[in-house]
Amino acid sequence: MPILEIENINKKFGHTEVLKDINFSLEKGQVVSIIGSSGSGKTTLLRCLNFLEKPDTGLIRVNDEILFDAKDLSTQSEAQIRKKRLHFGLVFQSFNLFPQYTALQNVMLAKELLAKEMPDYKTRKKEIHEEIEAQAISLLTQMGLANRMQNYPHQLSGGQCQRVAIARALALQPDILCFDEPTSALDPELTGEVLKVIKELADKNTTMLIVTHEMSFAKDVSDHVIFMDNGQIVEQGTPSQVFEHPREERTRKFLSHYNSEYSH
C-alpha cells in the first residue's frame, strides 16, 4: 500500500492553471525526485501537500487516510489541517529559520508548541522539555552541528542553516520529508554538504519527496523521478527510464540542458 496517494489535483491562481490533473503515489522508504523548469508547478505541488495552498480539485491520502478531499469540506477545517500537516516535514529553499532563536531552539520550537496541548503538560513540563531538547541535540549532532547548537541563524553558513532546517523537519517524525529546492540558495561547496545529508537520510530509508534542479543527485539517489512541465506530469519512471531513455520530447528537451551534468 502506498504511503502517499495523490489523485486528480488541480490548482489555479486566477485564470492560470498551475497544476493540471496531478496523479502519483509514493511508497514507504522511497525517494521520489520532481524535476522540471522553473514555473512548472513543482513548488505549488509541495505547498498543496503541506496544506499551504488548497487544491481546487482532487484528493490527498496518507497511510490510506484521506487528508484532503476537495469535495468534502469536513477535511478542510483549520483544526484538521494543523494535525494533517504533521504527516509532512517541509524543508524550504530559503531555510525559513526564526532569526531570534538559536539552532537548538529552532529545532525544538514546533514540538514544544505541540506539547503544550498535551493533557499532562503542566505536571510533566520539565520532563517533556528535557525529552524534546535531547531529541533536538541528537538531530543536530546527526547533521554535523554539535558545536553550533547555540548559534543564531546569522552566525551560520547557508549550508548549516539548511541542515538546521532539515533537523527541524525531522523533529516531528513526519511520514514524508519534503524538500523544495533545498540547495538553490547555496554555493557549490555548501550544496555538497546538504546533498550528503539527504543521501544519508535516503540510505536510512527515509521517505522523501524532493523538488530539485540537481540532476546528477536525482539520478543517483532517487527510486522514482517525475518530470513536470507547464503544470503537468509529462513523464515518470525510474531514474534510468527518465534520464537515459525518456519517451517524451519535452523531457528530452529539458534534459538536454543538463546533459553535461548527468552524463558523467
Describe the structure in your own words:
With 264 residues, the chain is of the alpha/beta class. Helices cover 38% and strands 23% of the residues. The chain has ten helices and ten strands. It has helices spanning 42-49, 78-84, 103-115, 125-142, 158-171, 188-203, 215-221, 239-244, 249-256, 259-262, and strands at 4-13, 16-26, 31-35, 57-62, 65-69, 88-91, 176-180, 208-211, 224-229, 232-237. The strands form two sheets. Strands 6-7-8-3-9-10 form a six-stranded mixed sheet, sandwiched between helices. It has a four-stranded antiparallel sheet with strand order 2-1-4-5, with helices on one face. A hairpin with a 2-residue loop joins strand 9 and strand 10 (232-237). Helix 3 crosses helix 4. The protein is globular, with a radius of gyration of 19 Å.
Keywords:
38% helix, single chain, alpha/beta, four-stranded antiparallel sheet, six-stranded mixed sheet, 23% strand, 10 helices, 264 residues
Topology:
Layout: E1 4-13, E2 16-26, E3 31-35, H1 42-49, E4 57-62, E5 65-69, H2 78-84, E6 88-91, H3 103-115, H4 125-142, H5 158-171, E7 176-180, H6 188-203, E8 208-211, H7 215-221, E9 224-229, E10 232-237, H8 239-244, H9 249-256, H10 259-262
